[in-house]
Design brief:
Layout (H helix, E strand, L loop, with lengths): L1 E7 L7 E4 H5 L4 H5 L3 E4 L6 E4 L4 E4 L5 H5 L6 E8 L4 E10 L12 E7 L7 E3 L13 E6 L5 E7 L5 E7 L10 E10 L6 E11 L7 E2 L3 E7 L7 E4 L2 E2 L9 E5 L13 E3 L5 E4 L10 E10 L6 E11 L7 E7 L3 E2 L7 E8 L9 E5 L5 E7 L2 E6 L10 E10 L6 E11 L7 E2 L3 E7 L7 E4 L2 E2 L9 E5 L13 E3 L5 E4 L10 E10 L6 E11 L7 E4 L7 E6 L8 E4 L1 E3 L9 E6 L7 E3 L5 E4 L10 E9 L6 E10 L4 H7 L8 H31 L1
Parallel strand pairs: 1-7, 8-14, 16-23, 25-31, 33-40, 42-49
Antiparallel strand pairs: 2-5, 3-6, 4-5, 6-7, 9-12, 10-13, 11-12, 13-14, 15-18, 17-21, 19-22, 20-21, 22-23, 24-26, 26-29, 27-30, 28-29, 30-31, 32-35, 34-38, 36-39, 37-38, 39-40, 41-44, 43-47, 45-48, 46-47, 48-49
GO molecular function, one term: calcium ion binding
Pfam families: Cadherin, Cadherin_2
Membrane topology: Single-pass type I membrane protein
Length: 690
């Protein structure tokens, strides 16, 4: 059990403090037999037990101020031990303050200066008197001896301390009175009242008649603990209406016995600007508030000063950050992992308590993951959506822990999660159709085209092999004409190609990856065979055995321009290689015949002479290829005396067109039709390719 007593500090030794036997509910005679003894918790013996009377006695005079200083309460703790049975009782004795100390000023004599031009209302701060007593026994008020010019004003500081100030009530005149002698009395609230005095001497000075004024004279600043050294606490707002040196201010700390100057180790004061900054770390647990007195003195002659009182109150902050512990991590994870798959196990701890120790774990919302609470301070990181290695091969996952302090403290931990590939993407060609051109008669093994496919997977899932498919559309399999390199997709010819036999090939190509199961895609390669001038012209008319000549007769009276005959030739090639031209070989200027270069018509260039017999002409037909190929025919032309009737028929009359002219027309129509059909076929194939 616990017993509670109180005793004034001025009691004489041997005074009774309390009746232990009665309060413990035991008989007095049993105290000795139960070996009652007293144990002091503080190590000092202030009390004793009278076993005969069963009372607690004062062993020595108590001094509350020495025991507890300025603490508002003063308690001494004892322990009573009794045996048979063993019992322990706690005794708390409150030491009550009595008015046993008189107020005392730090200095018995105080010297002050004031200019003679000081305005009524000017205040002269005085140092606070000290009284070790507490409560009503501490300083209650101040009194000032009667004066014509001065009165006393008392301000209450933030901590309740009363600050005396002398206030000028009437203007001064140094020429009449240069020095004023006053008595300042400090009175406490005890009964009887105790007092202390100090002599105040006020020197009246000339000139500098505006003192520095601090606004407000008493201010309060709230500052967080653990702010960085050098943090600005406040900048004093002090004004001096004087100019020049009389208005230049110099700041300094004012240290008194009440505040022995501990704050000067924690704060710095710029003597020119009046800025107060921290110069050491502040700890709320060591002290929650500091009282700072600052003197602002100008450089006048004599100098005037003002006083600022600043109370700095510290704010307790959340100064411990959470800590994240990564217990386990499953990396890599398959990209086809189902939602809810556990990726990592995490733990969190915070050395703070209460709200400052309550931690919330967060992960970025744009990531396909979420946190699930397993149990207190333990979390599981699970998938929250589909994964795609082709879009993201890995994730830098940052987990952020925030406590509930004010302000909250946060920490984060980043770890890398690799995504393992699965074969979920088929290889793709850049186009479903491709077009290539190859010259006919190219050597086997000629490179035709290089196909390229891409697979966004990786490893064996992206290892590609190419092959040619045989769709059975041709009598001869397509592999008889082309082969493909399975590694790089290059298509080669297997044998020489003939434009006149096959003008275009459709080569289906498949690409397949090495995944399990393997995925594939196809494309169609259109291979156009380019014509080469490998076919000489063929003479269709006149049709004669090789090595023989064609005999043609004309009327001897035929006039120039007479159509003797027409050479008709064709070329299996196409384009420029099939453009034919006709000309005479070994032609001389005296020859009476000429050959039309484009049409192949042989006409009489000049009238025949009577003496002329037959003429032997060698007509060459040449194509426009490179190199050019040709064919020739030998025509023997002789006059026919009996062909007058045939001569009349051979004249170029509109009424009876010659047989050769009709043949020319038919051949021209045939060539134009073949060309148009070829163009249409090429246009259809090109359109399908596109």
């Amino acid at each position: 059990s616990q017993l509670h007593y109180s005793v004034p500090e001025d009691r004489e030794p041997g005074s009774s403090v309390g009746d232990l036997a009665k309060d413990l509910g035991v008989e007095v005679r049993s105290l000795a037999t139960r070996n009652l003894r007293l144990v002091s918790e503080g190590g000092q013996r202030h009390f004793q037990v009278d076993l005969a009377a069963g009372v607690l006695l004062l062993d020595s005079r108590l001094d509350r101020e020495a025991l507890c200083g300025q603490s508002p309460t003063c308690s001494l703790h004892l322990q009573l031990v009794m045996e048979n049975p063993l019992q322990l009782h706690r005794v708390e004795v409150d030491v009550l303050d009595v008015n046993d100390n008189a107020p005392q000023f730090p200095k018995p004599e105080v010297g002050l200066e004031i200019t003679e031009v000081a305005n009524p209302g000017t205040r002269l701060p005085l140092e606070v008197a000290e009284d070790p007593d507490m409560g009503s026994n501490s300083i209650s008020t101040y009194e000032l001896s009667p004066s014509e010019h001065f009165a006393l004003s008392i301000n209450v500081r933030g901590d309740g301390v009363k600050m005396p100030e002398i206030v000028l009530e009437k203007a001064l005149d140094r020429e009449r009175v240069a020095v004023h002698h006053l008595t300042l009395t400090a009175l406490d609230g005890g009964n009887p009242v105790r007092s202390g005095t100090a002599k105040v001497t006020i020197q009246v000075l000339d000139a500098n008649d505006n003192p520095p004024i601090c606004y407000p004279p008493v201010s309060k600043v709230h500052l967080e603990e653990n702010v960085p050294v050098g943090t600005l606490v406040t900048k004093l707002n002090v004004t001096d209406l004087d100019e020049g040196p009389n208005g230049d201010l110099e700041y300094s700390f004012k240290v008194s016995n009440n505040s022995p100057g501990k704050f000067t180790k924690l704060f710095s004061l710029d003597p020119r600007t009046g800025e107060i900054r921290t110069k050491a770390p502040l700890d709320y647990e060591e002290s929650s508030a500091y009282e700072i007195a600052v003197r602002a003195r100008d450089k006048g002659s004599p100098a005037m000063e003002g006083h600022c009182h600043l109370r700095v109150e510290l704010i307790d902050i959340n100064d411990n950050s959470p800590e994240i512990v990564l217990t386990s991590l499953s990396s890599p994870v398959q990209e086809d992992a189902s939602p809810g798959t556990v990726i990592a196990l995490l733990g969190v701890k915070d050395s703070d308590s209460g709200a400052n120790g309550q931690v919330l774990l967060q992960v970025a919302k744009e990531l396909p993951f979420k946190l699930v609470s397993s149990f207190k301070e333990h979390f599981s990181l699970v998938t929250n959506g589909p994964l795609d290695r082709e879009r993201a091969s890995g994730y830098n996952i940052t987990v952020r822990a925030v406590d509930s302090g004010s302000p909250p403290r946060a920490t984060h931990k980043t770890f890398y999660l690799r995504i393992a590939d699965v074969n979920d993407n088929a290889p793709n060609f850049s186009s479903p159709f491709d077009t290539a051109h190859v010259q006919e008669n190219s050597l086997p093994g000629t490179s035709v085209f290089s196909l390229s496919a891409v697979d966004p997977d990786e490893g064996s899932n992206a290892k590609l092999s190419y092959s040619i498919l045989d769709n059975g559309a041709r009598d001869v399999p397509i592999s008889a004409y082309f082969r493909i390199d399975q590694d790089n997709g290059t298509v080669y010819t297997v044998r020489a190609l003939d434009y006149e036999q096959d003008k275009v090939f459709q080569v289906p190509v498949e690409v397949k990856d090495a995944g399990s199961p393997a995925l594939s895609s196809t494309t169609l390669l259109h291979v156009f065979v380019l014509d080469e001038n490998d076919n000489p012209p063929t003479i269709v008319y006149p049709s004669i055995p090789q090595g023989s000549a064609f005999h043609q007769t004309i009327p001897p009276l035929a006039e120039p321009g007479y159509l003797v005959t027409k050479i008709v030739a064709v070329d299996a090639d196409s384009g420029h290689n099939a453009w034919l031209s006709y000309q005479l070989q070994e032609a001389t200027e005296a020859s009476p015949f000429r050959v039309e270069r484009r049409s192949g018509e042989i006409r009489l260039a000049q009238a025949l002479q009577d003496s002329e017999d037959g003429h032997r002409l060698v007509v060459e037909v040449r194509d426009n290829g490179t190199p050019s190929l040709s064919a020739s025919v030998v025509i023997v032309i002789s006059p026919d005396e009996n062909s007058v009737q045939e001569f009349a028929k051979s004249l170029d009359l509109p009424k009876s067109p010659p047989k050769d002219a009709n043949l020319t027309l038919y051949l021209t129509i045939s060539l134009v039709s073949i060309s148009l059909v070829s163009c249409v076929m090429l246009a259809v194939v090109a359109a399908r390719c596109l």
